[in-house]
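[Q] Does anyone have a clean structure-token version of this?
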Amino acid sequence: MAPQANDYFIFVPAYNVENTLVEVLLKINESVLSRSHVLVIDDGSRDGTAQAFEKFLEGATGNARGLSSRFEYLKFEQNSGYGAVVKKGIAEGLASGAAFIACLHGDGQYPAEKLRDFFDEMENRNLDLLQGSRHAISGEAKRGGMPFYKRLGGAFLTALENMAFRVKLTDRHSGFIVYSSRFLKTVSLEKLSPSFDIDLELISIADARHFAIAELPIPTRYAGEKSNLNVVTYGLRVLRQIWRRIRIAN
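[A] Here you go.
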């Protein structure tokens, strides 16, 4: 069942998330699901991610939620990278006609149960980009188990970014983001990065074009899962984005 105009579109990047995907999908509030289409994008997983989705779908079909038709599964034959998944999710969201498009990671780090609050905030404040912040509440990232080197590196990069960008944020490296289609329609997806820094690129574009950007606090969740992000190369790409923004501004 494709979503109608003014509904929500949620895409779920999923790479080797057989142990977390079902729980993530179960946490999406029914009031959100009733207005949403959810697309799980499997980036060439080598584990049982596909089987986990089938298990979830069987349960969703048989239980009282009765919303299994809201879910769809798409698998890339080969691992194509986070950026490729985000581009595909955005493209499918725009094609659906939904007003708001959300990125919800399948590894369980981000709070699916908070989507209701985020969509409400987007609608009530007429926003174009709303990012979840793990640092908006002091000490939250540490309490949630974020490794020290990530807290330190993220704080350093965010401080530099806040000097370069118009809108000041507390956590520019969270992947929990809701976008307006109004903004995304102005973006040339083919020009965006194939890697993790695509989120920063989108924030940078929204900032440069004076779209409405904000953040909401989210809990931090780390459970020892393996990250596919190379923090060194990612950091260097972030610095390049900052330099580009400074040059444009001047």
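[Q] Thanks! Anything notable?
[A] The chain is about 40% helix and 15% strand.
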